[in-house]
Write a structure and sequence with these properties.
The chain is α+β, with helices and mostly antiparallel strands and 994 residues long. Among the domains are: 70-312, no CATH class; 378-484, no CATH class. Helix content is 42%, strand content 18%. It has 28 helices and 37 strands. The strands form eleven sheets. Strands 5, 28, 29, 30, 31 and 32 form a six-stranded mixed β-sheet that branches. Strand 36 and strand 37 form a beta hairpin. Helix 1 (14-55) packs across helix 2. The longest helix has 42 residues, at 14-55. The protein is globular, with a radius of gyration of 36 Å.
């Protein structure tokens, strides 16, 4: 009797069906869980961003961006979906009632029958997909929309169309976007309509009779008419686009604006083509009434022919036969417009240019006015001494200092002095035992600033610290809030607060570690389990959800570098690459310079921020953070601060006249405080930003010339010299120095030098007043005469070559490099002093048993003099090159003569007695003669003789070293050149100069 349960030889029959249902249930469950996980990941990103902005009190930035993007997505996504959907529906409605009996149509029947049951879904799917794509693309234009809606007048009109600059900066980009969207919508709709008409027989490629039905013809003609009408609008906007047109002209390869051929050929051509396109569009639009393609096709052909002849051939004829024979004269008015607009757009139109006689010998009366400059010459190079700060003040391996360090001013009144400053930041790589708790709960912050005098070093060549140690001692109040939770090198998240005990610092006096529990109020609270889950997803760290180390009151700190915090709360700013710390009001704060930029200033030449702000020191994250890399307008409109303890970000309006900033302030109301809100104590530490200065100096290599004829000739183009103390051949960076420009008072300034485009002699020296006050931002250029005496003024490369080729210096450097010591040249400073130019360069030595640089020598030379100083102290070097008594030079606090002696051999050329060994004296005399003969050959351009003299110079120096060496001592490594090149130093021989 059969089993009622249906059992048979193969087992129960229900198992197969049950297994299938279980599999489907598991798959469905897995799918639902995957979707939920994806949705929660999206929610986690949204939720954590909202919490982060709210913790900084910038939630309005988050909501403004969110609603702007949502609105753009909805509006343009809906417009695209409706446009495509309507045309698909209309093409289907206009299909012929009967399809022609042809092999082509019979083949399409299969597709029509297959689509028919899903027709509505296909229509909906095509509309939604195109709408989503268009909406997503539109969200990226949120900045363009906000600028158009809130645009502020510049109060300046372009010289061609007499429209306010705001039209080009704010309005034209939005009109271009609308036009591009219109083209996209029409093209997609046209393609969709053609496909539907073909599928349903409105368009045929085979068979007898009409290939296009009357209804399809009318539909497609209207779409083509709309397309051509949009092309007419494009031609009209192209007229204004000529004011922003990029190109090349003699004197610059980044020309922007109209030229003669643009104003006299392209501009009328665009107007004519616009009219032709309007007529052609009308012919297409009346096609449904006339039911013939003849007239619109003729009109379209005429438009294409006009574009070729009027828009292409005619301008080429004008350029060839009117402009080229007398280009300088024809282009002069347009070059003038470009010069004026470029100088205004980059803020260099007020630059003072003055010829400087660059005396070979210093003027004694002028030296009396330069005591402030001479007393503040910075021999402590912040780009080299970071290892020294680390070695002397690191205290523990989990601290480190940024490299390079920063320059600021501290003190008051006459006691203000240039100061090198660095923060002792957290370095997780130095944590003794790396694990999740140590990395994120125990080692959470750095501690205190370390400062040193910029113009002074101690007897051993180390910095003279004005704030140092743990706990810190020095010039700042004892109750300063020293904990550094936010810094340039602080990139990992930390969980602080609650019952968590963090390592604060190691107290050497007490011999124990000091702990601390964060109470700063920064970061986001983790008390909510949902928030913890969201952060567990954000950082891919499940322990954030269930770890017992997170107690009530705990907070999470992340996005901790000053640049990324400012960029997040002000997403419309470009950020300077070098934030710097200040200690003010008992707090440590980072100062970040923000730039507003535009690519829509008519006639102003464009520049690439990433390229022109790069120099020999832009590494380790010091590059500019640009919203748009290609710009033709820039202002340092915002000064921002980031509290190193709480992470609080404050934006201050710095340039109160900047229309771009005022536009963004209307877009994000309440986020930028007025300039009057800046604390006076903080104001003293603000400075002119480096990246803006780099952009301006790059423009001034060409735009210091204001005469159109001279600009066109390009005979007075400068360039920024390469850094002679680095091997990477990059540009020399600008330097913060206290200098006195002729006719002005000494001021903390940002300085640079220029050389001619094809030579190495000095062309000009520039300084901008970097001190907040009435003279802030005032630029002053000193141009050098072609000749000063019998030779041109030396540029940085030539000065470095002069240092390297001096026999006395080369001899002593050979001795310094014996053993395991290494040599590093510090920054080569150029200073206008005594109606001439003073070059000063510190020389650092890493001793055999010391792994950090110490300042041991100071090099100096004045003007075109051959009198090169190579001294133990800055004061001694100045006395030698300025030829004054010891009491005349102000005491800079330079290197004191080291007890026990520097690594200078007894009787060396730098010693008071000179070489006592006759063989040494003969070798040095030979070296001096070879050097002078080489210089003479160099001036005559006799390269063969120059090379021969260089070989004699090397041989003489090697002979001097061998003669000086005591009998039986090991031979030093052969130098191979007059100056054994230390790491980062240039070749010792002067670069050949045409």
């Amino acid at each position: 009797m059969p089993d009622r349960g249906g059992a048979g030889p193969s087992g129960p029959r229900f198992r197969v069906g049950a297994s299938s249902r279980r599999s489907r249930a598991l798959l469905l469950t897995a799918g639902v869980l995957a979707v939920l996980a994806l949705l929660f990941a999206v929610f986690a990103g949204f939720w954590t961003d909202w919490l982060w902005y709210r913790s900084l009190h910038y939630s309005s930035v988050f909501t403004t961006r969110l609603w702007t993007k949502t609105g753009l997505f909805a509006v343009f996504g809906l417009l695209m979906a409706l446009t495509v959907g309507l045309n698909i529906w209309l093409a289907h409605r206009l299909r012929p009632p009967l399809s022609a009996m042809s092999p082509e149509q019979q083949g399409l029947d299969r597709y029509r029958m297959g689509v028919a049951p899903y027709r509505r879904w296909v229509l909906l799917g095509a509309s939604v997909v195109t709408g989503l794509i268009a909406g997503a693309a539109a969200t990226g234009r949120w900045r363009t929309w906000l600028q158009w809606v809130n645009g502020t007048s510049f109060g300046t009109r372009d010289p061609q169309f007499h429209k306010d600059v705001s039209f080009y900066a704010f309005d034209l980009p939005w009109y271009r976007f609308l036009l591009d969207f219109g083209f996209s919508a029409v093209v997609v709709a046209l393609l969709a309509a053609v496909l539907v008409h073909y599928l349903y027989g409105g368009l045929r490629l085979q068979g007898p009779g009409r290939r296009v039905s009357t209804a399809a013809q009318g539909h497609l003609a209207v779409l083509l008419g709309v397309f051509v009408a949009l092309k007419a609008v494009a031609y009209w906007l192209d007229r204004y686009g000529l004011a922003l047109k990029s190109g090349a002209i003699r004197g610059t390869d980044s020309w922007t604006g109209l030229r003669y051929v643009d104003a006299n050929a392209y501009l009328p051509a665009k107007t004519i083509l616009c009219c032709v396109a309007v007529i052609c569009a009308l012919l297409f639009l009346v096609t449904p009434l006339r039911r013939t393609w003849t007239l619109p096709l003729v009109g379209f052909g005429l438009m294409v022919l006009s574009a070729l002849l009027i828009g292409g051939l005619y301008p080429a004829i004008v350029q060839q036969f009117q402009v080229k024979p007398n280009e300088a004269s024809k282009e002069a008015p347009y070059i003038r417009k470009n010069i004026d607009a470029t100088r205004a757009a980059y803020g260099i139109d007020g630059t003072r240019v003055q010829q400087y006689r660059a005396a070979v010998d210093p003027d004694r009366a002028a030296l009396d006015k330069d005591t402030a400059t001479l007393g503040n010459i910075r021999v402590l190079d912040p780009n080299i001494v970071s290892p020294t700060f680390t070695q002397r003040e690191q205290q523990r391996s989990y601290y480190s200092f940024a490299s390079p360090l920063d320059i600021d001013r501290y003190g008051s009144g006459a006691g203000v002095q240039d100061t090198v400053i660095g923060l002792r930041e957290l370095n997780l790589a130095g944590v003794p035992s790396r694990n999740w708790v140590n990395d994120h709960f125990k080692y959470t912050h750095g501690y205190a600033a370390v400062t040193a005098k910029g113009n002074t070093v101690g007897p051993d060549g180390d910095p003279v610290f004005t704030e140092s140690g743990l706990p810190p001692r020095g010039q700042f109040p004892a109750d300063t809030r020293w904990r550094v939770y936010f810094g340039e090198r602080t990139t990992a998240y930390s969980v602080v607060g609650g019952s968590n005990k963090e390592l604060d610092y190691y107290d050497r006096d007490a011999g124990k570690e000091v702990t601390y529990t964060y109470d700063g109020g920064g970061g986001v609270s983790l008390d909510n389990p949902l928030t913890r889950a969201a952060y567990a997803v954000k950082f891919s760290e499940p322990q954030l959800l269930y770890s017992g180390a997170i107690t009530p009151g705990a907070r999470i700190l992340y996005d901790r570098t000053p640049k990324e915090r400012v960029e997040a709360v002000a997403p419309w700013l470009s950020i300077d690459g070098d934030p710097y710390p200040v200690v003010v009001g008992g707090k440590v704060k980072w100062v970040v310079d923000g730039y507003t930029t535009s690519n829509g200033y008519p006639y102003a030449s464009r520049t690439t921020l990433g390229d022109v702000t790069a120099d020999s020191l832009t590494a380790d994250g010091r590059q500019v953070l640009a919203q748009a890399d290609r710009v033709n307008y820039i202002r340092n409109s915002v000064k921002a601060t980031v509290d190193a303890f709480t992470g609080e970000v404050t934006l201050y309006q710095w340039d109160e006249r900047d229309p771009v900033l005022r536009t963004w302030m209307k877009s994000f109301p309440g986020t930028v405080k007025p300039r009057s809100a800046i604390d006076p104590a903080l104001m003293q530490h603000l400075r002119y930003p480096q990246d803006l200065f780099k952009v301006q100096r790059d423009l001034l290599t060409r735009y210091h010339v204001t005469d159109p004829a001279a600009f066109y000739a390009g005979s007075d183009v400068w360039k920024v010299p390469t850094d002679p103390t680095r091997e990477n051949r990059a540009d020399q960076p600008p330097y913060y120095l206290t200098v006195r420009m002729p006719g002005e008072q000494a001021a903390f300034s940002l300085t640079t030098s220029f050389v001619p485009s094809s030579r190495q002699n000095l062309a000009a020296f520039m300084a901008v007043n970097a001190n907040p006050g009435p003279d802030y931002g005032r630029m002053h250029i000193l141009t050098m005469p072609e000749r000063s005496g019998d030779q041109a003024v030396r540029g940085p490369q030539q000065v470095q070559a002069k240092f390297n080729s001096d026999p006395r210096i080369a001899y002593d450097i050979n001795l310094l490099k014996q053993g395991d010591s290494s040599l590093e040249y510090g920054n080569l400073l150029t200073l206008p002093v005594g109606d001439g130019l003073l070059y000063v360069e510190p020389v650092y030595v890493r001793g055999k048993n010391i792994n950090y640089p110490q300042l041991k020598k100071v090099l100096a030379v004045y003007g075109g003099s051959d009198n090169v100083a190579y001294a133990d102290t800055l004061k001694e070097a100045l006395q030698q090159v300025l030829k004054v008594d010891a009491g005349t030079v102000p005491e800079p606090g330079g290197t004191a003569p080291p007890s026990g002696g520097t690594p200078t051999a007894p009787g060396s050329p730098t010693g008071p007695a000179g070489p006592a060994n006759p063989a040494v004296q003969k070798a040095l005399d030979d070296a001096q003669a070879a050097f002078q003969a080489g210089q003479e050959a160099l001036r005559k351009g006799d390269w063969a003789a120059y090379g021969e003299q260089q070989k004699k110079l090397r041989d003489a120096l090697d002979a001097a070293v061998k003669a000086q060496r005591p009998s039986g001592s090991p031979s030093p490594a052969p130098s191979g050149s007059p100056s054994p090149a230390p790491s980062g130093a240039p070749s010792p021989a002067p670069s050949p100069t045409p």
